[in-house]
Write a structure and sequence with these properties.
Elements: H1 3-30, E1 33-34, E2 37-38, H2 41-47, H3 50-83, H4 89-100, H5 104-115, H6 120-129, H7 141-165, H8 169-177, H9 182-193, H10 195-210, H11 214-220, H12 228-236, H13 244-270, H14 294-320, H15 337-343, H16 346-379, H17 385-393, H18 400-411, H19 426-449, H20 454-462, H21 467-478, H22 480-496, H23 501-504, H24 512-521, H25 525-550
Antiparallel strand pairs: 1-2
Length: 556
């Protein structure tokens, strides 16, 4: 390994140690420490409190239930969109895709406006029947499962779409020749072949659900329904506890244990099994004919897309345009006052500036670090590539809530030597974003680097090109679109991120998501909806712009 590569390895190791390794080690240590000594008292406090068992059960129940439902719906949508002659495919895809970029907690707010005790549905029901009882209540367990299912089904659809495209059509054709019906083909051939992808999608949705803070807080706080994430936040703010930080760390360790156990279970279930999807021979996917059900199926999936995307957005929009919360939307009650009020709020200006800065900075830094580590692991093939890869992918198995607690514990005290504290500053949020999303950058970029022929790099080196010239003239031009994709897939989540921010924000360092959450909790629903519409519009514009710039298919 030459001197330049050694320097790059040291730089990458230092960055990963500071961003990821140190905070993760601190949270594990703090969970077994109290008053400067090692102890299991924190875990004793965790396991002796019945509220923690209740939160654990709630988390597992809503996450598992929603994951199963979302997998069924998402796989069904992907199958119909890719493997059948379903009409309106592009419309269905765009509806799902647009929903994918809307923050789940904003979706939860929307359904709160629709199905809450004073929501549209209940007001109509009471007006028609004269009853004082509500027809449906979105708050609590069922409401959280409902929203998790809708958002999770879109996630499963996005993951499974490409996998359905890669199935060898000869498998299905052979089954058709033997007289198998479409349903039997789907159950006996398609599902078994896609089992690894389905499990992966399920794990992705489950981990996303169990680590989500926004949805359980919007739909659970009002009825004292807590999950692990909201319980951790409750403990963190309970200053009557002398060891609240340590107990929060212990609860976070429990959340990490569940995630690691889930990933291990998936690996064991798939161990020793081979599932070949792609071979050297190109096969065009054969479309299954829906026959007389074609129109009905197309209408059903379009209606589902409208139900999960258009309906919530319209709910947020109409509430944002209503003069006062609780009034029926009509031309007489419509006004742009809420948007004017929000735009002139100092909170909005601070949150907008902070979110844009954090999203841009985190995207560039995470992509830079991801590119550096990917180059060392894939192209330079440094002997230290496995430790580097392990550390940078670690946040993928750590829920966002845990990363936030880790950042608090790691940077609460002043930084040694420099003497300043990152806590209660915007920089701790930036560090958390970069640490959390560097995994995404690494996976996206490293996947594209594996496709580069090493002879191109070797030819550049032989011709006298420096390492920097090789990167800028050979590597980066070849994977430009993948780097752009990685940047986009980090920028958008950072722009709307809540789970990390809600634990780390402070006065003056609000983000757009925490600003919406603050307005929502204060009961200013119309302003919260107006700000939500501004975020949705921003995400849509960025989505379209990036799609045109990089010719990406995964954009609206």
């Amino acid at each position: 390994m030459n001197k330049t590569n050694r320097g790059m390895v040291l730089l990458a190791a230092l960055l990963l140690a500071v961003l990821i390794g140190y905070p993760v080690c601190i949270i594990l240590l703090r969970s077994i420490m109290l008053d400067g000594g090692f102890t299991l008292a924190n875990y004793r406090d965790v396991f002796l409190d019945s509220r923690n068992y209740e939160a654990l059960f709630n988390s597992l129940w809503v996450s598992l239930s929603a994951t199963v439902l979302a997998t069924v719906i998402g796989c069904g949508a992907a199958y119909f969109a890719v493997r059948t002659d379903l009409p309106f495919k592009k419309l269905v895809h765009r509806l799902f895709l647009f929903n994918f970029f809307i923050p789940p907690f904003i979706i939860a707010m929307a359904w709160q406006q629709i199905l809450g005790p004073v929501g549209v549905v209940n007001r109509w029901y009471q007006a028609i029947t004269g009853s004082e009882e509500v027809l449906v209540n979105i708050y609590g367990q069922n409401g959280i499962i409902f929203v998790f299912t809708l958002s999770g089904s879109v996630m499963v659809y996005m993951v499974m779409r490409s996998n359905f495209e890669n199935i060898r059509s000869s498998l299905e054709e052979a089954a058709v020749i033997t007289g198998a019906k479409p349903f039997r083909i789907f159950v006996d051939i398609v599902i078994p072949v896609l089992r690894p992808s389905i499990f992966s999608a399920m794990i992705l949705v489950f981990v996303s659900n169990i680590s989500n803070y926004g949805v359980p807080s919007v739909l659970g706080f009002h009825v004292s329904y807590y999950t692990l994430t909201t319980r951790i936040h409750q403990v963190l703010e309970d200053f009557s506890m002398t060891n609240n930080m340590e107990v929060a760390a212990s609860l976070s360790a429990v959340l990490v244990a569940i995630t690691v156990l889930t990933l291990t279970l998936k690996d064991r279930m798939l161990k020793g099994r081979e599932f070949t999807l792609i071979t050297g021979k190109s096969e065009k996917a054969a479309l299954n004919r829906l026959g007389k059900w074609r129109g009905a199926a197309g209408a059903a999936w379009v209606l589902y897309g409208i139900f999960i995307t258009v309906l919530p957005v319209c709910s947020i929009l109409t509430t944002s345009l209503t003069r006062a919360y609780g009034l029926s939307f009509s031309p007489a009650n419509a006004s742009l006052k809420n948007f004017s009020t929000v735009i002139h709020m100092p909170l909005f200006r601070r949150a907008m500036g902070n979110s844009l800065f954090l999203a841009f900075a985190a995207a560039f830094l995470a992509v830079g670090i991801g590119f550096l580590v990917a180059y060392l692991c894939v192209m330079a093939k440094t002997p230290f590539r496995r430790p580097l890869e392990f550390v940078i992918t670690m946040p993928g198995a750590i829920p966002g809530t845990v990363m936030a607690i880790a950042m608090i514990l790691a940077w609460l005290k002043p930084v040694p030597v420099f003497g300043f504290s990152l806590y209660n500053t915007i920089w701790i949020i930036l560090i958390a974003y970069v640490a959390n999303y560097a995994t995404q950058a690494f996976r996206t970029i490293s996947g594209s680097m594996y496709q580069i022929n090493r002879s191109l790099e070797e030819a550049a080196v032989i011709s006298g090109a420096s390492l920097l010239q090789v990167m800028t003239t050979v590597v980066i031009p070849l994977i430009r679109e993948n780097v752009g994709t990685a940047w986009f897939l980090i920028f958008i989540p950072c722009l709307r991120e809540l789970t990390l921010s809600i634990f780390l924000w402070s006065s003056g360092n609000e983000t757009l998501a925490t600003a919406i959450f603050t307005l929502q909790e204060a009961g200013n629903y119309t302003a919260a909806c107006a700000l939500s519409m501004i975020i949705i519009a921003m995400i849509a514009l960025v989505n379209v712009a990036v799609g045109k710039l990089f010719h990406m298919e995964g954009t609206v």
